Amino acid sequence: MLPDQGWPRQRVLETLDAYCQRDANWRDGRTFSLVYHAGDEIKDLLQAAFLRVFSENALNPMAFPSLRRMETEVLAMVAPLLGDPQAVGTLTSGGTESILMAVKTARDWARQHRPEITRPQMLVPTTVHPAFHKAAHYFDVEAVLVPVGQDFRADAAAARQLCTDNTILVVGSSFAYPHGVIDPIAELAALASERGILCHVDACLGGMILPFVEELTAQEGVPTLPAWDLRVAGVTSISCDLHKYGYTAKGASVVLYRNRDLRRHQFLGYADWPGGLWASPSAAGTRPGGPIAAAWAVMHFLGRQGYLRLAREALTATQELLVGLQAIPGLKVLGQPVATVLAFTMEDGDIYRLGDAMQARGWHLDRQQLPPALHAMITAAHAAHMPALLADLRAAAEEVRGLPPADDGQAAMYGMMGTLPDRGLANELIVSFLDSLDDPNQAGPA
Ligand SMILES: Cc1ncc(COP(=O)(O)O)c(C=O)c1O
Fold it and tell me: Which CATH architecture has domain 303-431?
């Protein structure tokens, strides 16, 4: 309940601190997603920039030209990194909003250019981020699943088979979250352009590291990455999160289109509102200034050399992890990760038990399914912790090797959910879990 009398400031802040005590400790490199930390110097800069425009609102670009300028400059910095300096876009609140906008744009583009299509479909690999399924629900575009091959990359031949007269959009990821591999973007984009439809690349995860990985590997003469961005003809839009490998404050992503005509389908204007002439570029109404200023600040502060350094450190740490994983009997990396995100499984034991055993040692490796695996998303901040991580992985693997699947803890929950034949029921169960989260008994001690 709202307190009748406001609390003293000190009580407010102390209570907040108490609430935070049980949160995952990302500061010592023990979490592998959710937080992208590039050091305290950058964190301080992000906070300072965020606070400068803490109260400002990018909803009205006339009122705060500073935010509009920063947004334009951020987009102009990102577009060449993603392969087309002429591309135009919008800054959004995150990967999900960028993806929602790309799918809405495709739907509205098809309404204009393919009015005969009444039940639009989009082709999405099974590994694509669930934000596309959210978009499918929100915008009434059917998501048609494209299988992935042994290498966990979308099967382009299968995509071709699945393409129908109702397909309006083909999607690939650079790289996909589950296994850190790049889908065959050139083949997917070729399919889209042959059919005269759109192709979106989800580079939410890879967009701010792959350009630098490419530059580093080119310097070392290592084989280059497969084509992954707007350099591929036929790719019509791309999403790229700044709050992941762009190392900015949360709430910043970019969605870019090949040209203004495409982007127009994202925007909405409403000239008949008594409250005034209204136009909005994206899903949000009020748009906080903080994430825009923080993104602008960190990109200027790091520059290309700074991002190259961070990419090099993250790649070196990932290499150490890959070599170390190979040396632990029974552990196997899935597919061939192209950069700093990977998944591994256990051939002589229950990988979910390994996850629980690592959790007991304080490491939060995300669980995956289909097939069962643990997931690691490496940043420069993990570099110093690799020896400790590998030592614990070796000990935990020894502890669980040969044991049957667990019947308690997260391991049992994941084991059960992965094998439940009724996927509708599986969806119901996870939604019920969401529904239970506002139960005060779940929220933790006050
Ligand atoms: C490949 C990919 N796309 C999209 C997203 C969604 O991003 P957000 O969580 O910022 O909405 C993620 C998040 O991890 C991702 O990995």
Answer: Alpha-Beta Complex (3.90)
